[in-house]
Amino acid sequence: MDLIAIRQALHSIPEAGFAEVKTQRYLLECIAELPQQWLTVTTWRTGIIVRVTGYGAIKTIGWRADMDGLPIREQTGVTYASTHDGFMHACGHDCHMTIALGLLARVANEQPKNNIIVYFQPAEENPGGAEPMLAWLKTERPDLLPDVMFAAHVAPQYPVGTIATKPGLLFANTSELYIDITSVGGHAAFPHETKDASVIAANVLLQLQTIVSRNIDPLHSAVVTIGKMTSGTVQNVISGAARLEGTIRTTTPQTMEAVKRRIEAICTGIAASFECTVDVDYGSSYYEVNNTPHYAEALLAFAEQFDGTTAYACPAAMTGEDFGYFLKDIPGALFWTGANTAYGLHHEKMLPDEALLHVNADFVHAFLTSL
Ligand SMILES: [Zn+2]
Ligand SMILES: [Zn+2]
After folding, report:
1. Is 192 within any annotated ligand binding site?
2. What architecture is domain 173-285?
3. Domain 3-170+288-370 in CATH: superfamily?
4. Which residue of the set 20, 66, 94, 288 is catalytic?
5. Boundaries of every domain in the chain
6. Whether the predicted pLDDT of 202 surpasses 90
7. Per residue in 348-368, pLDDT tens?
8. Is position 125 annotated as part of the catalytic site?
9. How much is the CA Rg of the chain, to the nearest whole Å?
């Protein structure tokens, strides 16, 4: 199995969440080429679940790879760049799928002792595929639930072979945030006949800044960021509608609820004081990635002695990952794996070092079959 060719093929066909149709077809073709004696293949929406029956199983070990790309116009200049205009594998999910295929190739050729299940999960970026996939497994196919589960994410800033994780909280609770203000616009020279949505939006923006500084316990971290603000149409018309778009990040689910309660209180107050309508919508929310301490420590210890990897006990980050939903119910851990590229995740030039593919397929296979 030529992992570099596979990753390049996947890289060229990035697709949106729950629209990974070509990606699913390509993966199914790759899986069909493997020895099938102890494989069973199941599809769920655009995802794929491959169960490998062990020869003396006492447990079932899960490995998850996410499948979707991002609405970003690729600027890497590589020959195998995206053929889907305006879409790109800018978060390394092409690498994650390839590592999972590398793992499958190894266990399809040499039957493992324990059962191994590989989950190709759609829609990690948006709207979130882990939560509905897990809900489906629990209700329809509990036989396909693992006892323990792992996943990796490429990390641009680390050299290839770096395996970085930590016990407990690794990634934050996250939520999108959309605030729509509907008021009364009008002629720029008659402000008293309007309710200026730009001024209202500015007040919302400033009051949001008091949540982290004045409502949240300083020992409980939170982020409230408004990344985009739009209002009005032209210089001499008072705006009648404005929109703020942002994200919330917290290190506990309780802090997330506290931040949301304050946002709603502020918006209710602003609506009353400015005589307008303020609607709050959270879009997609992800549960924290909270590693089972024992398994994060086992990953680091294994990486330390494995040929080709080094372990790094990294700090937690305010990034989000919907793998957190699996870890809410199933013990396990997620780790960063070094990708050695100058550009960060979601950057139009993000290009992982392909050397990570074989290193990780070998590492993941060795680690999972050691459990
Ligand atoms: Zn991403
Ligand atoms: Zn990602």
Report:
1. no
2. 2-Layer Sandwich (3.30)
3. Zn peptidases (3.40.630.10)
4. 66
5. 3-170+288-370, 173-285
6. yes
7. 999 999 999 999 999 999 999
8. yes
9. 23
